[in-house]
């Protein structure tokens, strides 16, 4: 089902504006509720402005015999994004000024765009340049660049608290697989999973944006609210390829997002690496800017720029797999369940250890115990010892080298017995009151 | 002499209450003064209560031919600790419900107890189970479980200051060698050594307790006083076996106890490892609980749970040696002498270096020097350079990679010359005034 | 030219006072302006006092046949520094009490002195002791030890700010090459280089002192001023020998000096090691004493005490090279240029990234870029991302693994575009106003 969805989304000509975005959001909206919001050309967002809306119907280059040497219908990567309308006969020299290739990757169509400067261009395989031997060519670009709108998709699940987890992905790239279709696909599966869960502690927000300008627009309208509400969050991208996971930390580097993601990766037993935040990535560049410093990391597999096919036609279906996508979904779910389970407790018996056997929490007689019994006793005893009102369950799990969410049930048991007191609850109620 | 003492103590049937404890303390009291204190059954200590007093005279299981298959007289480990009185004929099935073995260690009698739930039981080698082929057995347990007292032993040496070093060991295990007899033996030898010392800076307290309930009782009566007085301390246990030392840190992990013990182990040149505090150990679980957070570490050799014979009849004389016990005594003495030597100084000449030659502390002319001279000059020069009123002698010794107590004499020399000022003294006088 | 200078300075008989110092400063003063200051015998500096002035004209030991066995004219190391005048016949036994050798380095004349206790002595190769077979010897020391002056050389370059970089070297050793002539030579070349620079941000002070007593004297007169003015500084010594650089940190260990020097060494690609401050070195012992804690490190090659020829006649021209000296000069210049370039900026656009293409700072269209373009774009983007008003250019360069001073031009460009604000300027103006 995931790959069917992929196959429907892949051929659509997405850009930062235009009907490709709307169509993609409609298809994903069959799976999860996505509200489309439209923002007019010219809307200011900090140092930036929403550009004109762009749509393309047809585009080709014909030689003097009338053969189509390049055709947008074959691959939407052939047309440079935001190419202005053009129709005319051009010399070989003039054409070559508008032809983009990747000499280092000669069988790939490069992905190019010129959002903020009006221009036109075609992208082809470098190996095909020798075909362009004629003196003159007919160029047709039947596109439209005019005042219109930019589209942003948004989903939301209300939890017990107004504190929220923010997932953000982008929908502005034409036919490429790792970057970007793996992002919206994985985010949508995570969203669908959470829709089925009851008793969520956090609220969840899912953004589907045109990269950069979309997150800037959203921050310009909701940034202050996000600063108050976002407890953790991730930019979902590059989630379909490679054996190893990559976690890019938030700019602060020690946020709850970072702690939970790194903890889960470590406990997963799967290969992974952690990289520091840097300003060469996706929307975490905006979310983590000094004015917002949102706790936004990015949990990826092989990341942008680290595979040779990046930003070319070679980043296609053959590079990704349903298995890898689903494993990424599971990793996000594990991180989210860890965040849901995570609480900070304070042991109510501070003078020596509380007596556990009289509460049925410890066997009266020593002896041979099952492994499950041993784990339960270990969890209970450690939770009592290390719940000091500061260390949360993830901190304690790190110390014990166990999965944080596995401490949830023993913690709740001890809370029922009055041995642990949840020191988060008050804050959460306060926040809820604050946000009504 | 140490092994003679061991041989007198080993056969005694100790438990958390009863005459075995009293008899053991009397024997140790021949070496050092130990005051026995009695606490009534029912005395509350935080979440716990002192249980009934238990004593056992005789206990056996006979088969239908009247042969004693199990006899307490052979090993006090055969009778489960705190077994209630019982006398009667039982079926094979009923007997087996009360028989405890260790299938993973088939030639060992396991150590079992049921302090807080009335029950009876016998412990035998797993290999001997096939001997129990009869249909019925005669069981006799001539024990006594009734209101009485729990006994705690305490020794004390008054030093110049009321700040104290606390050593604590436990005397509640029947015939086992590493855990526990090595503990009381090593503590007693350290106590004896300190009795001969004059001019002790710290006071010294030595507790001989039933594990857990004993330290809880002591803390419930003297915990607040200990919080004000204890500068450093150690739970003395598992000190007779293994090539390598183990230091278990206090819960805070950076106390004076931890600093001194790790420093001495490092300088000793002997193999050692350091482990973090955790709630699976001995009385440091109580001493380090959040309400007290006493600076109690534990300096051991091979520790509980890390040798297969732990808590069985195989933990016997063959595993320990007088040499290992005495080496542990020496390590404790070195730690204590390091604490005694440790002071914090401030150099009185802060503008450049003081001139040492005019005070006879440095040769006027360079030239060939003996190693001892070089060490003395190095110590004097470093003490002047690094005594900033914050770094103590252990800190400076760590920086110089020398034994902390070796800096004591050069420091006193510099103090006599007025070049160092001891910044601890005022605090110590204050404390003494406070405690009168 | 550097080795010519070396050859003129080498034979001079320097000590902590006397004409040798004055003559050496005059020779260096041909290259750079050095003001000589004179301080009277008896001037107090903290715990020390300026000693009498010492000069030596002639000194020898003759055997009974009138042969000169030792002659100051052959090497000024033969005469112990500060030897008092003496003329007379002495027995072999008495002579040997005044003869110093190095049995561990039998072909070396040791370097000896007795500044603060009146005495006389000669130093010779240990191998030559068998030549002293006569019963009596004629000893002549035509020296002068009387009230006079101690000489200190000082240079200064006024920069835009009164904050200053302090370089300090010593000129009190007789004929030795690594320790000490490499120090004054390298410092003088750095001084000469800076004299040619315009628009220096910092002021620069260059001290040429007799070791220890000279820095104590200077601190006693100008220490409080230095505390207010010195932003960074280095003791220049042992700069002419060895493949590897050595950086000895300031006592605080995290000063701007330490940060800049270690950063430059790391980026240089040359072998180096970093050692902690300790009280066995040169004038950083005084500069870093608790009363001043100046940020003085020491950037050396093979350091004092780490080569066997140290403080003997074997520390001569053969050990050093013009190439090594000039490489040291370049390393100091790199450190200084890094300090000059280092500023702290704050990005003025904190809400998302500023739009760079509309300012000509980023290409409108993606595509193939030169390495220089990539580096420029990377620098600009990183500076915007990491300039948070706290991280300075060295911090950012460390993060990016590039040379700090290479970030200067991109930072100035961004400052011109109003995207970065220099947060140091105000402080610097304030300081300048303060010092008027």
Automatic annotation (TrEMBL), chains A, B, C:
It comes from Cohnella lupini. Keywords: Aminopeptidase, Hydrolase, Protease. It comes from the Bacteria. Residues 4-342 form the DUF4910 domain. Residues 53-144 form the DUF2172 domain. It holds the Pfam family DUF2172. SUPFAM superfamilies: Zn-dependent exopeptidases. This is Aminopeptidase-like protein. Residues 344-421 form the UCP01524 winged helix-turn-helix domain. The keyword Chloroplast does not apply. The keyword Repeat does not apply. GO terms for molecular function: aminopeptidase activity.
């Amino acid at each position: 089902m995931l790959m069917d969805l992929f196959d429907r989304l892949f051929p659509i000509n997405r850009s930062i504006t235009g009907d490709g975005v709307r169509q993609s959001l409609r298809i994903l909206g069959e799976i999860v509720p996505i509200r489309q919001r439209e923002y007019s050309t010219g809307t200011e967002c900090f140092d930036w402005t929403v550009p004109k809306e762009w749509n393309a119907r047809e585009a080709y280059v014909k030689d003097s015999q009338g053969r189509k040497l390049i055709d947008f219908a074959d691959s939407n990567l052939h047309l440079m994004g935001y190419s202005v309308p053009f129709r005319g006969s051009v010399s070989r020299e003039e054409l070559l000024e508008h032809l983009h290739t990747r000499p280092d990757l000669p069988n790939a169509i490069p992905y190019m765009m010129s959002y903020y400067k009006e221009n036109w261009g075609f992208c082809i395989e470098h190996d095909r340049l020798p075909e362009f031997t004629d003196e003159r060519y007919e160029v047709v670009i039947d596109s439209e660049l005019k005042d219109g709108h930019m589209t942003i998709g948004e989903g939301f699940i209300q939890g017990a608290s107004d504190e929220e987890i923010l997932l953000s992905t982008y929908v502005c790239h034409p036919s490429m697989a790792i970057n970007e279709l793996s992002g919206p696909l994985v985010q949508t599966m995570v969203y669908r999973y959470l829709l089925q869960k009851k008793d969520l502690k956090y609220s969840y927000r899912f953004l589907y944006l045109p990269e950069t300008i979309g997150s800037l627009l959203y921050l310009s309208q909701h940034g202050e609210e996000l600063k108050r509400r976002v407890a953790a969050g991730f930019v979902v991208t590059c989630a379909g390829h490679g054996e190893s996971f990559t976690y890019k930390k938030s700019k602060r580097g020690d946020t709850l997002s970072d702690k939970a993601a790194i903890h889960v990766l470590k406990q997963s037993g799967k290969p992974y690496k952690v990289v520091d935040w840097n300003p060469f990535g996706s929307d975490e560049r905006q979310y983590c800017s000094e004015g917002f410093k949102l706790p936004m990391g990015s949990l990826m597999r092989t990341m942008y720029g680290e595979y040779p096919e990046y930003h070319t036609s070679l980043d296609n279906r053959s590079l990704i797999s349903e298995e890898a996508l689903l494993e990424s979904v599971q990793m996000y779910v594990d991180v989210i369940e860890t965040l849901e389970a995570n609480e900070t407790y304070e042991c109510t018996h501070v003078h020596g250890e509380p007596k556990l056997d009289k509460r049925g929490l410890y066997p009266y007689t020593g002896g041979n115990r099952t492994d499950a019994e041993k784990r339960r006793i270990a969890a209970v005893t450690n939770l009592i010892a290390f719940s000091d009102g500061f260390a949360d369950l993830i901190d304690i799990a790190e110390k014990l080298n166990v999965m944080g969410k596995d401490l949830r049930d023993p913690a709740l048991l001890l809370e029922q017995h009055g041995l642990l007191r949840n020191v988060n609850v008050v804050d959460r109620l306060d926040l809820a009151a604050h946000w009504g």
